[in-house]
Design brief:
The complex is a heterodimer.
Chain A lengths: L3 E4 L2 E4 L5 E7 L5 E7 L6 E8 L2 E4 L6 E3 L9 E3 L8 E8 L12 E2 L3 E5 L1
Parallel strand pairs in A: 2-11
Antiparallel strand pairs in A: 1-3, 3-8, 4-5, 4-9, 5-6, 7-8, 9-10, 9-11
Chain B lengths: L3 E3 L4 E4 L4 E7 L4 E9 L5 E7 L4 E3 L2 E6 L4 E6 L8 E9 L5 E4 L3 E6 L1
Parallel strand pairs in B: 2-11
Antiparallel strand pairs in B: 1-3, 3-8, 4-5, 4-9, 6-7, 7-8, 9-10, 9-11
């Protein structure tokens, strides 16, 4: 069964610690994304990557870092520079292509819920 | 003003009711449109794509009005299991490809 796997599902962090959230997909999708969701708000894009070894900042990249060493993997590190990291983090992936081809439709992982103590 | 706007609700409807959600988008370069469903504390899942000609999937009907820049979702014969948040999603190409999410409309279907 193809899909996206995020881990851990729940994570607690002390202030000043860096944490890394894992995201792995076996859908053979080119593009991968990280979003953050806060209560009552829409999803906000943190980083995205369309090809291995390349990634771009989204709307709220400050305090986060990513890597894309393999097509299947796109881990997100929440650094101590992120002042309000408590949130629900969602990883997604998509094929790239034209709207007519059905590409660019996001498939999400189950999410990682990060709480800062 | 947000690029994709939705009425946050909540919409409280009885089982069997018909309910409609609207979503407006501000960027005329928007290319493709979707409705996602998100259950509480879960990930969003694609409900349906929205085509210019309108499309139907069982009890769900989606329509796109490019001239007025809005998208609608109609749910007929509401079920308790339809209770969720419905996200309007727009893809656009201007300034680089981007997917924009609305904040969602909450629906509660009651017995």
């Amino acid at each position: 069964d193809g899909g996206i796997t995020q881990s851990p599902k729940y994570l607690f962090r002390k202030e000043g610690q860096n944490v890394t959230l894992s995201c792995e997909q076996n859908l053979n999708h080119d593009a991968m994304y990280w979003y953050r969701q806060d209560p009552g708000q829409g999803l906000r894009l943190i980083y995205y990557s369309q090809i291995v070894n390349d990634f771009q900042k989204g709307d709220i990249a400050e305090g986060y870092s990513v890597s894309r060493e393999k097509k299947e993997s796109f881990p997100l590190t929440v650094t101590s520079a992120q002042k309000n990291p408590t949130a629900f983090y969602l990883c997604a992936s998509s094929m790239l292509g034209t709207a007519a081809s059905g590409a660019n439709v996001l498939t999400f992982g189950a999410g990682s819920r990060l709480t800062v103590l | 003003r947000k690029e994709v706007e939705q009425d946050p609700g909540p919409f409280n409807v009885p089982e069997g009711a018909t309910v409609a959600f609207n979503c407006t988008y501000s960027n005329s370069a928007s290319q493709s449109f979707f409705w996602y469903r998100q259950d509480c504390r879960k990930e969003p899942k694609l409900l349906m794509s929205v085509y210019s000609s309108g499309n139907e999937d069982g009890r769900f009907t989606a329509q796109l009005n490019r001239a007025s820049q809005y998208i609608s979702l109609l749910i007929r014969d509401s079920k308790l299991s339809d209770s969720a948040t419905y996200l309007c999603v727009v893809n656009r190409l201007t300034g680089g490809f981007k997917t924009i999410f609305g904040a969602g409309t909450r629906l509660f279907v009651k017995a």
